[in-house]
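Homework-ish question, so no full write-ups if that breaks the rules, but can someone show me the predicted structure for this set?
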Amino acid sequence: SQQGEEDPQALSIQEGENATMNCSYKTSINNLQWYRQNSGRGLVHLILIRSNEREKHSGRLRVTLDTSKKSSSLLITASRAADTASYFCATDGVYGNQFYFGTGTSLTVIP
Amino acid sequence: EPEVTQTPSHQVTQMGQEVILRCVPISNHLYFYWYRQILGQKVEFLVSFYNNEISEKSEIFDDQFSVERPDGSNFTLKIRSTKLEDSAMYFCASGRDRNQETQYFGPGTRLLVL
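A: Not a homework solution, just the prediction itself:
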């Protein structure tokens, strides 16, 4: 299975702190994406990082990708209560066009 | 900003009934997908659709499922005879390109089979 696995499964931090979530996957990819999901809601695309990129920034988000370790991390800086959600990494396959989602990290930011 | 829309947002049905979930992908996208998420579990791929045919499907997508693009804008998922275990959130997604490109997800349809 190519499905990613995030860790930790749950993370609780104080507002203003940084949150780091990790994702590991098993096979070669073209790109890796991070999505956010508020409870019972749809998936919101956050950031895409291609296999030839090592780091990408978008606002308070920083994503790294280490293809040699088949892992990625998502850093949310200066967290806010509104960042409370589940965060998923999704990988594609080199040959397929489906996405494989991880189990997600449930982030709680305490005001 | 263009977005994927899905209807209905919630659907309750009796076991054995047929349901059709509807999606309107982003207009210039060519690739369409259905995923599902059983409560508390991972998002799972069901099927991808391109050029009016299924390009890839998972083991979940058995004979009770079918997809269709009946006109230039809608993309539907039909479940012929629903089972209790079909209860899940169903997400439609669309993308412009097969690779090197993100998929944009709709808000989902929550299906409850009683």
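Now go work out the reasoning yourself. Hint: DSSP finds no helices and eleven strands in chain A.
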